[in-house]
Every structure is written in C-alpha cells, then in structure tokens.
Amino acid sequence: MTSKRLGILGGSFDPVHVGHLLAAETAREELQLTEVMFIPAGAPWMKEGQLHAVAEDRVAMVKLAVGLRKVFTMSRLEVDRSGPSYTVDTLEILKQSRSAEELYLILGMDAFLEMPRWREPERVVELAQIVVARRPGYGAAEGAGVDAMLSRFPGLQSRLHLLHGPAIDISATDIRLRVMEGRSIRYLVPEAVQTYIHWRGLYTAAKA
Q: What pLDDT is stored for residue 1 in this prediction?
C-alpha cells in the first residue's frame, strides 16, 4: 500500500477563496493526505477567454493562501507549460515525478459532473482517485449525477470519494462582482488575498 497520498486541487483560482481551502482541508483530513498541491491553471481550455486576472496574479494569490499551511503547496506546473491546461496531462506528469505517491484529484461537484467533457476522462480515473466536495444547491440532482457518472465510468466505483465535510456556497464569480461593486469580500478570501486584490486593483470596474 502506498504510504504517501498526494492531493491535487487545480483550478483557475480567479481568485482563490476559502471554499477552495475548506475543500483541501476536508480532503486532507478525511483521506489522510500527506500533501495537498494547489495547481493554478495556465490556459484552462473550458474557460478560454474568461480569466480576469493574469497567471502571475493568480499564482501570487494562491501562494498567499496556502502559505499558512505547511501541508499545502503550490505548483506552477500548468502555468509554466505552454498550450491549454488539460488535467490528464498534469496527472501524467505527476504520476512520473511523484511515482511513490497515490494521487487524489480533488474536485467540486460541478467540475466532477463535467468530467465526460474532459480530455481522456477514462485515463484521469486510472491515474487518480477522484475526490468530490459537495456544494449546496444540487439536492436530489447530486445523487442522480453521481449515479450517471458511475454508469459512464465503470472503473470509478472503487476510486470515488465523496467528502462529508461542510459544504459552503462561495464562487469566484460572486467575489469578483463584489469587488467590482465595492462590496466587502472579508471572510470569503484569506485576509492576505483580500489585501493583494485591493493592492493590485484586481476585479475593479476599470479592469473588468
């Protein structure tokens, strides 16, 4: 049995918020992960043209967010790689470079249900255990969605982990809107991230 377990939390992190941190911490605790690696996307193909902060700003915010937690790390793997960011490519690289560790891919329920649209989703299931953080608002649709995914990917049954920790409804879209409207984002993002957003003038009407 693999002794080390690497959690992988990817995303645009535009911006990173406490929902991301809570999902990472819940996964770490429930699955006894040795490390949770945050990987900001360089050019996420499903969000082409939709990013609001440049890669270096998103990287800086993630660094600030994870800096308080020793078991949380940040990787530039996708930011420094040219071309679109595909999860399967990232997992292939980590499978080689971190071969002694079992990979656990942490997803929100919304991202999990989008997996059939991903590049080589069957290979993603082969490369990593799939960890799903529940989000409020799905209700009965959540169970139906999970059942559909299990039917779509036969190998998923033994590799799927639904987290039982608290689910909170925080979205980066809402945070950006709040900044643009001059409303508070306190407690929605780490304090250091809030300071960075204001210092850099991110998500303001002038930059929207």
A: 46
Domains of the chain: 4-169 (3.40.50.620)
- pLDDT band of residue 5 (cuts 50, 70, 90) is very high
Helices (H), 114-190: 121-127, 140-152, 172-180
Count of alpha carbons within 13 angstroms of residue 182, beta-carbon side: 1
Q: Return the CA Rg of the chain.
A: 17
Of 128, 73, 74, the closest CA to residue 102 belongs to: 128
Take residue 25 and report the two structure tokens written for it: 């911490």
| Per-residue model confidence as pLDDT tens digits over 144-187 | 889 999 999 989 999 999 999 887 889 999 999 999 999 999 99
- Cβ 52 vs Cβ 208: under 8 Å: yes
| Residues forming beta bridges with residue 129, ordered by sequence position | 104
What span, in angstroms and rounded, lies between the C-alpha atoms of 2 and 9? 20
